[in-house]
Write a structure and sequence with these properties.
Blueprint: H1 2-10, E1 13-19, E2 25-29, E3 31-40, H2 45-51, H3 53-63, E4 66-70, H4 73-87, H5 91-102, H6 104-107, H7 112-123, H8 127-131, H9 152-167, E5 174-178, H10 184-193, E6 196-200, H11 204-210
Parallel strand pairs: 1-3, 5-6
Antiparallel strand pairs: 1-2, 3-4
Helix pairs in contact: 2-3
Length: 211
């Protein structure tokens, strides 16, 4: 398998044992270092690890298709990282990265109609779902926790005050909030500071709620 060829060239420090989906052992070793044994339970995992190693390892571990039998997932990642840092990436991965960059513009193609569809798929769900894990204003972006004891509602309030202070927003000033969500920041700026805020959202549910 291609993964075997890559690991043969990559592993120069430590020992990595791979048990494939058929139960066969593949041992890759170099000079003295950590020892890790990984079991790949899905026959497609090796190919995924070749094409997109970062995603394949993370998703494979979460899905149970990749388990670490000797050591921990941290030990596995550390062993790979140490060898990549010492000897660099395999030429195949460099080629994959180059092709990925060439097609990046196509992968990120997001015209207006598609963008609206993507937003609807993500946000036009039951509001009760978002109420389970967001603050009362349904702020979706990162909160500002001043200490480990800060609760979510306070942290989101901190964030809104922090944004207003950084932008030096003053009463009567016009603000355009692109991607305004459920309107939490816009309402804060209007009520607390007296700014005139216009919000833009592609989500029908968010638009209805913010009104």
């Amino acid at each position: 398998m291609v993964l075997k060829t890559i690991l043969k060239k990559l592993i120069r420090v430590g020992t990595l044992t791979i048990v494939d989906a058929s139960g066969r052992l593949h041992i890759f070793s170099g000079r003295s270092g950590s020892t890790v044994k990984v079991h790949l339970h899905n026959k497609f995992i090796p190919w995924r690890m070749v094409i997109t190693p970062t995603m394949a390892i993370g998703e494979g571990y979460m899905e149970g298709h990749l388990t670490v039998e000797d050591g921990t997932i941290y030990d596995f990642l550390s062993l790979l990282g140490q060898n990549i840092e010492t000897h660099g990436q395999h030429p195949f991965h460099l080629m994959v990265e180059m092709v990925s960059r060439l097609f990046k513009r196509f992968q990120q193609f997001n015209p207006q109609l598609l963008s609206k569809k993507n937003v609807a798929h993500h946000y036009d769900l039951s509001q009760k779902l978002y109420e389970l894990f967001l603050d009362p204003d349904l702020q979706y972006s990162c909160a500002y926790f001043e200490s480990p004891e800060t609760d979510l509602e306070t942290a989101q309030e901190n964030k809104k005050r922090h944004i207003a202070a950084k932008l030096m927003i003053s009463p009567g000033q016009s603000v355009l909030d692109i991607g305004s969500g459920w309107g939490g920041l816009a309402i804060f700026l209007a009520k607390t500071i007296g700014a005139k805020v216009t919000g833009i959202t592609l989500s029908e549910n968010q638009l209805e709620e913010s009104h």
